[in-house]
Amino acid sequence: MKERLEALKLEALQELSGVQSQQELNDLRIKYLGKKGPLTEVLRGMGALSAEERPVIGQVANDVRAAIETVIEEKQAAYQQQETETRLRAEMIDVTLPGRPSQQGAVHPLSKVIQEIEDIFIGMGYTVAEGPEVEQDYYNFEALNLPKDHPARDMQDSFYITDEILMRTQTSPVQVRTMEKRKGEVPIKIICPGKVYRRDDDDATHSHMFTQIEGLVIDRNVRMSDLKGTLLQFVQEMYGKETRIRLRPSFFPFTEPSVEVDVSCAMCGGVGCRTCKQTGWLEILGAGMVHPRVLEMGGYDPKEYTGFAFGMGVERIAMLKYGIEDIRHFYTNDLRFLKQFLHL
Ligand code: DAH
């Protein structure tokens, strides 16, 4: 029996030495060590042995088993190692390869200008408010002292959703919404950037959708000189210390008195050039002292409180600042245009 075991060991080791694949190795493991293998068979026959023989043969059988197992494990380990190496090689990353260039985006010039304007007013103690683009007639017109059939509505024809709901034509309704929200408390100091809509034909300076920034201040003793000082501070931060402003009388239903505000032309310093049509001035916004009726409708007693308001077109401010000649550039997503603002 001992000879049979030794022969078995020799045979197994020989077969194992010629093994070519993991599959073969597995097959051999089953063949020699499996339940139906010769080794199990020998062990099963041990019952027939004498008491002296049994431990000796048992020892030999165990040795044979151990020898075969060791070789199988070694081979198995080698296969695993090989497999890991193959995988590592397949997953290898060449860190010296040049990367794929990623396209760098830029903040849209309009967003940039809005942020700049916000920063300037936040620096003067304002907070930023927002309102809906789909607005009620009441907020867009009525509460701003533009009753139905008021002729001043003509200049601001809009896209109507129903008779009472429209795309807002101005950011001024946020004035009313803010007053309602503040319920008579002062001071109010807000600016409100946002999109507005008008039934306009698009050309180099007009668009059916554009961006405005509204400003509103309400407190006791707010005067016209406060408005003027605020706007001067604003344009000087925006366009440079040497910038001047000029106020011309105008009309808005929600302010009294109303003014139109010009800045000295940044292109020529006010001497006169093509941009300012030789006048030295550029109109940038409308403003005025909040009309008593508007204060009243917003819940503020005009005998106790006064305020000023202003509204500017952001595109125009941006066009003047960056020398952009056509408003449509802002909306057409042409990378050749947008890329010019990458580093500004
Ligand atoms: N909402 C006006 C417009 O779109 C601009 C404006 C003028 C706003 C005077 C104001 C203001 O707040 O006081 O033409």
From TrEMBL:
For this protein, the record's InterPro entries field holds: aa-tRNA-synth_II, aa-tRNA-synth_II/BPL/LPL, Phe-tRNA-synth_IIc_asu, Phe-tRNA_ligase_II_N, Phe_tRNA_ligase_alpha1_bac, Phenylalanyl-tRNA_Synthase, tRNA-bd_arm
**What residue stretches are annotated with the Aminoacyl-transfer RNA synthetases class-II family profile domain?**
111-340
Residues at which Mg(2+) binds? 256
Q: Where in the cell?
A: Cytoplasm
What binding details are noted for the cofactor? Binds 2 magnesium ions per tetramer.
- Is-annotated flag, keyword tRNA processing? no
Q: Which cofactor names does the annotation list?
A: Mg(2+)
The EC category is ligase
GO MF term set: ATP binding; catalytic activity, acting on a protein; magnesium ion binding; phenylalanine-tRNA ligase activity; transferase activity; tRNA binding
Listed EC numbers:
6.1.1.20
Q: Which cellular components does GO assign to this protein? A: cytoplasm
Alphabetical GO biological process terms: phenylalanyl-tRNA aminoacylation
Question: What chemistry does it catalyse, as a reaction equation?
Answer: tRNA(Phe) + L-phenylalanine + ATP = L-phenylalanyl-tRNA(Phe) + AMP + diphosphate + H(+)
The family note in this entry says: Belongs to the class-II aminoacyl-tRNA synthetase family. Phe-tRNA synthetase alpha subunit type 1 subfamily.
**PANTHER family xrefs:** PHENYLALANINE--TRNA LIGASE, MITOCHONDRIAL, PHENYLALANYL-TRNA SYNTHETASE
Q: How does it assemble?
A: Tetramer of two alpha and two beta subunits.
Name used for this protein in its record: Phenylalanine--tRNA ligase alpha subunit
Provenance organism = Paenibacillus ferrarius
